[in-house]
Design brief:
21 strands, globular
Length: 497
């Protein structure tokens, strides 16, 4: 009997020891993890017990604010989005069920109520909570222009200041109204979430909650030739003035067949083109650029693509996911086959890019070869108007040399000014635009196109660089015809034409 009591005592001591260890594990080791767990009821209640700070556009337009809740109990405040779906894919939402996204998530610590910093002796004796206002770089005039230009069509616009990386406009259609997601009514929130993620069949099944401006990617088509051109200047300068044969197509087994080729590579519409880079870029000559890429080589092409930001996470101050990363094939992925490299170097096959990525490509050429870090936050102020932080423009990548950027800038101007340029006749000559179109064949049997244009203006002192993509268009459409008018309206909104 005494032996059993002894073993029982040992067991109880071990239980108390295990309890002590677990209490310390929860209260000390995992304290920070648990306090930051979004499923912690205390965290959820705290989110709505105090107001959150304002989110504003560049001119002070209120994009998000806290208002008293009509829900009884502990949920005293809810978020309201006065501009509806115009900014929702950047501002995001703050949902009771689905959490936060966009600026609401990325700058959650600034927006949430927090203790005011100690600045005086009086502050040491009393604490009070404050919220901060996050002011964005988005220009309401440009954001509205993007919505107007895309009305009724699936597409995305990303416009930035090439010298700072500041996002001036970032809009994609379809979009969504974030207000039902912040209603604090679980039925309303679930219905809105389901509706927003169902997508409209007329919009190729793209869900409105997906901001295709930076969290989706598409074949960039000939807009990628800006990078291929830069690669020639940077890695194979002897090819810049080389004249390539005038062809309508490169056929398997023909005199100019590429290694590994089993399918025809044909110019758009069967046109005949060739010559030097200077004569090939304006009409966007696929055959000539395919032969050019073979001369540059897969290693140099990959090096140039990564220098412009491909195969890397863009450092924008918004929530991230894997679909943001634009892709260009490594030398191993093309398996030494020149035909795979050729299709990729004219923006097809393995190459995929987000609108943000292609806007940064335009921005790098506009800014003398430097890709600035893209950002949506301009500054943060406390509730008394004191500056908390201001974004400092920061280079992200040196994509190419100043000399190459200058040369490519000039070539992109010829895309607009030459009579055989794919962007000829689209812009007001006074706007002095540099551009590159892209028309990627997609879908079963290449029956559809993804249409692009990237551009900047004025070419000699750029104020705006942008990319427009219009996915899944009828096969007869082109980047110039579909994306061009959108780019023109955005540039005119900036330059005041």
């Amino acid at each position: 009997m005494g032996k059993r009591i002894g073993w029982l005592g040992v067991f109880l001591v071990l239980c108390f020891a295990a309890l002590f260890v677990q209490l310390n594990n929860v209260q000390v080791v995992k304290a920070k993890q648990e306090s930051n767990n979004p499923h912690n009821p205390r965290i959820e209640i705290q989110r709505y017990a105090q107001p959150h700070g304002l989110i504003e556009a560049a001119d002070g337009t209120v994009l998000a604010q806290s208002v008293p809740s009509n829900k009884p109990g502990l949920y005293k405040y809810t978020r309201q989005y006065p501009q509806g779906g115009l900014y929702s894919q950047i501002v995001g939402y703050n949902s009771l069920i689905y959490g936060a996204d966009g600026v609401e998530a990325f700058y959650a610590k600034d927006l949430a109520s927090h203790n005011a910093p100690v600045k005086t002796i009086r502050d040491l004796l009393s604490t009070h909570t404050v919220t901060d206002t996050v002011r964005l770089t988005l220009q309401p005039k440009l954001q509205q222009e993007a919505r107007t230009a895309l009305a009724g069509r699936t597409g995305a616009v990303v416009a930035l200041d090439p010298s700072t990386g500041a996002i001036l406009a970032m809009y994609s259609n379809p979009t969504f109204d974030p207000n039902p997601l912040a209603s604090l009514d679980t039925t309303v929130e679930r219905q809105a979430w389901t509706a927003d993620n169902t997508g409209d069949p007329a919009h190729a099944g793209l869900p409105p909650l997906l901001p295709i401006t930076y969290r989706d990617r598409f074949a960039p088509g000939s807009a990628f030739k800006v990078i291929t051109t830069s690669a020639a200047y940077d890695h194979a300068p002897s090819l810049v003035d080389k004249s390539y044969p005038y062809l309508s197509a490169i056929v398997p087994g023909g005199p100019y067949a590429l290694g590994g080729q089993t399918t025809i590579l044909q110019n758009y519409g069967g046109e005949v083109c060739g010559g030097t880079i200077r004569t090939m870029l304006p009409p966007s000559c696929d055959t000539g650029y395919s032969l050019l890429s073979a001369g540059i080589g897969s290693a140099s092409m990959y090096a140039e693509a990564t220098a412009f930001g491909f195969d890397q996470q863009p450092p924008i101050d918004l929530p991230h996911d894997r679909y943001e990363i634009s892709m260009f094939p490594t030398p191993a992925q093309v398996h030494g086959a020149q035909i795979f490299l050729a299709f990729s170097s004219i923006g097809q096959k393995y190459t995929q890019a987000s609108p943000l990525q292609m806007a940064m490509v335009a921005g790098a050429i506009a800014d003398g070869g430097v890709t600035m870090t893209p950002h949506v936050m301009a500054d943060v102020h406390d509730s008394q108007g004191n500056l908390v932080q201001r974004y400092v423009p920061t280079p992200w990548l040196t994509s190419t040399s100043a000399a190459t950027a200058k040369a490519v800038n000039g070539l992109m101007q010829h895309v607009v000014s030459d009579s055989n340029g794919t962007a000829f006749g689209i812009f007001n000559p006074a706007d002095h635009v540099a551009a590159k179109t892209g028309t990627a064949q997609v879908g079963v049997g290449n029956t559809a196109t993804t249409d692009w244009m990237i551009a900047f203006a004025p070419a000699d002192a750029p104020k705006i660089a942008l990319a427009v993509v219009m996915p899944d268009q009828p096969g007869t459409q082109t980047g110039a015809g579909v994306a061009g008018p959108v780019v023109r309206s955005m540039i005119q909104a900036v330059l005041g034409q």
